[in-house]
Amino acid sequence: MSAATESVSESTKTRLRTTGVGAVSGLGAALLGYLATYIATSGTIENSTASQLLEALGSGLPTWKVVGWVFLNTHGVVTTFPGIFGTTSSANLVEQFEAFSTLLYAVPAVALVGAGAAVAVARGASTVKSGAIAGATTVAGYLPVAVAGVALFAVTIGDAVARPDPLTATLLAGVVYPLALGTVGGAVTAALR
Q1: Which of 9, 18, 19, 60 is paired with 131 by a 20 to 30 Å CA distance?
Q2: What distance in Å separates the CA atoms of residue 13 and residue 26, rounded to the nearest whole number?
Q3: Which parts of the sequence belong to the DUF7978 domain (predicted)?
């Protein structure tokens, strides 16, 4: 085997390991972000008038699903609701209800910057560029959670469904947030080393 083939093979292995670490870090960031959102909002959701009204009408509104809406809302993803005569409306619960603190917007940012930093440290990134590339791999773990959230956080109301908007959940929460914030976390961490 030539030296060139060995270096290409080793380079590929290194990229795959970095992507694996990024996927685990991205998944961890998503799960920790959801957990932090759950802790901060579940009591408010369970005691809300809307939740009590839906329970009275016989439509179960599981708290964990509404927390999922709020978690994705902190990424700029709106939740779509069925309206009358087949129409739909959308809302960002964090923006529209005073019961939710705007500090919730920091949850995904902190989780993803931390995840990007963790990947940079784990992979021994020594330059800003290598740290940024390592941090960007958090998308490999965060994207599947954002996509799955569209289905997992769906709630059937009559013949219609309330759920996070699929397009923005995928693109904004699944790709833009982890790429941007993971990259920043990785780059800053590498620069400080």
Answers
A1: 9
A2: 20
A3: 1-192
